[in-house]
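User: Design a sequence. Structure:
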């Protein structure tokens, strides 16, 4: 099935009534070319040329398969922070969610060729519910840094599944996955799509949308940059490993290419399951 609610970024991103309607109906919109190749390359430079990211990597493992991740709470002032604070990302989230947002956390998902583990069916709110967030007024922005294809483990999504509400999640191989019986039933109502993307394409999806990704057994890696946002009005009611409301200083889109900081990661507040007991079990440091 083709992707639903596809748009293309050109010069600026004006969130239209059609985009909002697509988001409300399907729980997601796809923005092609949200980042251009130069901006993608700048993010990749941050990943590959920075020890702060490398030393914070940890793994999600399934047998001999593993996926590397780095997670941080605050956007910071480096290139990745400029992307997370940019108008084209933040304003879009605010328009789709219908209110002011703050940066909840960001992460790199580095699925390398032939070795990347699967991530089971889940809702992001399946996790975040336990962080003291009373409402699912939250979303993730998934930006492809490599081509994301069916072969290398692109996201698989059930459009419209956000309307099913929060589903019970249970421990599975060190992950927390959505109840399989319920997921199978929802698949009958919300046919699966493969979210195949080019570098710079982005998916804005609701925190209750069911999604997963298969193992990457191909010869092509699949790296992605994910940014999560929470509505200011949904400030968590408990202290947890992700932040309560923290004012977000937005920047113009031009700030991304104007940024020359690829190395100073001070203030990003990296988190690691090996050091944060409130994170789910089953993760190991690289």
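Assistant: Done.
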């Amino acid at each position: 099935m083709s992707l639903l609610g596809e748009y293309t970024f050109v010069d600026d991103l004006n969130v239209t009534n059609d985009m909002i309607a697509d988001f409300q109906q399907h729980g997601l919109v796809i923005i092609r070319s949200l980042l251009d190749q130069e901006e993608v390359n700048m993010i990749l430079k941050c990943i590959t040329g920075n020890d702060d990211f490398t030393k914070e990597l940890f793994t999600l493992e399934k047998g001999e398969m593993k996926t590397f991740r780095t997670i941080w709470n605050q956007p910071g002032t480096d290139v990745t922070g400029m992307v997370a604070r940019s108008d084209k990302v933040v304003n879009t989230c605010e328009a789709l969610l219908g209110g002011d947002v703050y940066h909840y956390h960001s992460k790199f998902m580095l699925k390398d060729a032939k070795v990347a583990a699967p991530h089971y069916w889940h809702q992001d709110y399946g996790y975040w519910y336990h962080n003291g967030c009373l409402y699912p007024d939250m979303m993730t922005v998934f930006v492809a840094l490599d081509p994301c294809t069916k072969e290398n483990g692109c996201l698989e999504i059930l459009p419209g599944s956000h309307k099913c509400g929060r589903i019970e999640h249970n421990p599975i191989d060190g992950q927390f996955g959505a109840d399989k019986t319920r997921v199978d039933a929802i698949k009958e109502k919300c046919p699966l799509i493969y979210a195949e993307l080019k570098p710079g394409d982005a998916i804005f999806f609701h925190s209750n949308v069911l999604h997963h990704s298969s193992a990457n057994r191909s010869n092509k890696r699949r790296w992605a940059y994910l940014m999560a946002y929470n509505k200011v009005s949904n400030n968590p009611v408990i202290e947890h490993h992700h932040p309560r409301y923290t004012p977000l200083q937005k920047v113009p889109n031009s700030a991304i290419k104007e940024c020359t900081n690829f190395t100073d990661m001070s203030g990003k507040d990296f988190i690691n399951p090996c050091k944060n007991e409130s994170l789910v079990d089953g993760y190991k440091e690289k």
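The first helix runs from residue 17 to 26. The chain has eight helices and 16 strands.
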